[in-house]
Amino acid sequence: MQALATPETFPNGRLLDYPADWGSVSGPELKNAEIPFTPVPAGSEGALVAELQAAVAAHKPLLMRFWAPHWVLAEVPVEWLKMPPCDPNNLAECIVAPPVIKVAWAGFRGKWPAGYELMKSLQIHADDQQKMIYAVDKQGKNLDQAVDGWIEEHQSDWQSWLKAAQN
């Protein structure tokens, strides 16, 4: 933990947190779990990314709150830490990942059964999303080029979606 402490947080480690204006529950989460880290808000999303890149370049440890998918995760390897479980009676002091839900019109399945099966099967992994975001945001590709690259590399994925729609 001392490797993650700073003069401002010593003897606690530092958790680089979301910018203050985003809001965060890191403080209560850390306190409730009795984890000796002090959350320090980043100035912006760019500051979070820059600090992550700098830590990797310097081979220094960094504990930060972040999210996926994000383009920087296509170029910087990270390890996700599992936080202690949240108190289900007090989720205001805990970040719970929202479920990803596909929503369609109630009559969609009846009117377009093949389209319904296609949408039910369609799933793109966060790593693949990050690579496409990186291609657009950092490599100057347009959206069509990024998607075309994914389609070329993942034929078995989307072909299985089409098969599901044809059954």
Describe, in short, the structure shown.
This protein is mostly helical. The protein is built from seven helices and two strands.
Quick tags:
two-stranded parallel ribbon, 41% helix, mainly alpha, single chain, 167 residues
| Largest sheet descriptor | 2 strands, parallel
User: What's the N-to-C terminus distance?
Assistant: 55 Å
Main β-sheet, spatial strand arrangement: 1-2
Overall residue-averaged pLDDT value: 91
Low-confidence stretches: none
Number of strands: 2
As an assembly, this protein is single chain
Global outline: globular
Q: What is the topology?
A:
Layout: E1 13-17, H1 26-32, E2 37-41, H2 45-57, H3 108-111, H4 113-121, H5 126-137, H6 143-153, H7 155-166
Parallel strand pairs: 1-2
Helix pairs in contact: 4-7, 5-6
Report what the structure shows.
The protein is mainly alpha-helical. Helix content is 41%, strand content 6%. It has seven helices and two strands. The protein has a two-stranded parallel sheet with strand order 1-2. The longest helix is centred in the first third of the chain and has 13 residues, at 45-57.
